[in-house]
């Protein structure tokens, strides 16, 4: 859902850039607190994985494709603020080197995917996780729901920005964006759960927040 | 698994996906592009002046004829650049406070 230049008005681009810059600025300050020695390289590799996975468009219905977003995964590894920073790094490289997503619209893209996907939905997902039992199932369930919702919230924000820009009426663009992204968001949930499972299998301590209790060994009935 | 090996393994997975799998990714329009085409605002999209000179527009590594090789190379270089940039920003911001003993 990378918005190219021309889709949103300059006014909307500026209004979106303000909270986007604020979120990234706060994330940089949080980095001083949130980053322990292990999480310095983890931030780099999370950004690299998000960039790589965003290149892998998978087909969804009707001659359309979708790709991974990564906000929920980044929040599960680094917390909501550093997730926003990760998305901002990825989006900036995509816009400047690969002409993917606009330059004027970069603030809107960081807002939709980093601030809304990472900070708002990622933060909500981590809060819900705290309220749930500290089990592997609860973690993966929260990851799936958070991943799905991050894509949907970003798509909804994108639709609102297009409508406020006068590009297209909200009544037509919002249902269309949510409809197509409801399917893409399922792919997001699957990839996020798979990636979190891989981290749990190798380095469960790298999960942000409490590490789930290992499942009790199942004794074969004999 | 030691942190260093985890990072190397995860980076290898990312680089592998971006360079070997991305050339075979779907080239259909993504969700927003599809909606833009259906609702007739796709042609409003334009490159920013800065992007007219972007080194690898649409993930095509410059000077490579084979589109799959060009995409794979762009993925390879792009993933390593994003890793370096993310690592660098993290290291610089982390550097402001004394390291825990």
Structural features, described:
The complex is a heterodimer of chains A (222) and B (101). Chain A has 222 residues and is mainly alpha-helical. Chain A has one domain (10-206): Arp2/3 complex 21 kDa subunit ARPC3, CATH 1.10.1760.20. Chain A has 7 helices and 2 strands; from the N terminus they run ααββααααα. Chain A has helices at 10-34, 39-54, 71-78, 80-98, 106-131, 136-164, 170-202; strands at residues 58-60, 64-66. In chain A, strand 1 and strand 2 form a beta hairpin. Chain B is mainly alpha-helical. Chain B has one domain (3-94). Helices cover 54% and strands 0% of the residues of chain B. Chain B is built from 3 helices and no strands. Chain B has helices spanning 3-21, 31-38, 67-94. In chain B, helix 1 (3-21) packs antiparallel against helix 3 (67-94). The two termini of chain B are 22 Å apart. The model of chain B has no long low-confidence stretch (mean pLDDT 93). Classes of the chains: A mainly alpha (222), B mainly alpha (101).
Structural class of chain A: mainly alpha
Give a count of the beta strands of chain B, DSSP E runs of length 2 or more: 0
Spatial shape of chain B: extended
Mean pLDDT of chain B: 93
Q: What string, H for helix and E for strand, traces the elements of chain A in order?
A: HHEEHHHHH
- Principal-axis shape of chain A: globular
CATH architecture of chain A: Orthogonal Bundle
Poorly predicted parts of chain A: none
The tally of domains of chain B stands at 1
Query: Greatest contact pair?
Result: A-B, 71 and 65 residues
User: What is the N-to-C succession of helices and strands of chain B?
Assistant: HHH
């Amino acid at each position: 859902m990378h918005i190219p230049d021309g889709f949103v008005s300059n006014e909307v681009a500026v209004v979106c850039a303000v909270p986007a810059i604020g979120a990234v600025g706060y994330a940089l300050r949080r980095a001083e607190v949130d980053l322990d020695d292990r999480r310095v390289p983890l931030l780099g590799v999370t950004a690299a994985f998000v960039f790589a996975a965003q290149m892998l468009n998978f087909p969804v219905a009707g001659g359309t494709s979708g790709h991974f977003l990564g906000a929920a995964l980044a929040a599960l590894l680094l917390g909501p603020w550093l997730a926003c920073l990760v998305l901002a790094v990825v989006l900036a490289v995509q816009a400047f080197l690969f002409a993917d997503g606009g330059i004027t619209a970069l603030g809107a893209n960081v807002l939709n995917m980093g601030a809304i996907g990472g900070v708002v939905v990622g933060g909500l997902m981590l809060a819900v996780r705290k309220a749930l039992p500290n089990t592997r199932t609860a973690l993966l369930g929260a990851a799936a729901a958070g991943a799905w919702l991050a894509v949907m919230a970003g798509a909804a924000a994108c639709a609102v920005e297009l409508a406020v820009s006068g590009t297209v009426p909200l009544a037509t663009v919002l249902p269309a964006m949510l409809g197509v992204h409801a399917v893409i968001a399922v792919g997001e949930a699957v990839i996020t759960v798979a990636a979190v499972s891989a981290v749990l299998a190798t380095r469960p301590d790298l999960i942000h927040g409490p590490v789930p209790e290992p499942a009790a060994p199942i004794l074969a009935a004999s | 698994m030691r942190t260093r090996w985890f990072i190397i393994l995860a980076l290898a997975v990312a680089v592998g996906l971006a360079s070997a799998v991305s050339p075979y990714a779907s080239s259909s329009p993504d969700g927003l592009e599809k909606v833009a085409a259906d609702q007739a605002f796709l042609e409003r999209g334009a490159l920013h002046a800065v992007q007219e000179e972007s080194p690898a527009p649409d993930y095509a590594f410059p000077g490579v004829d084979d589109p799959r090789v060009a995409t794979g190379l762009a993925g390879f270089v792009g993933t390593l650049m994003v890793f370096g940039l993310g690592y660098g920003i993290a290291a610089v911001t982390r550097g402001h406070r004394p390291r825990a003993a």
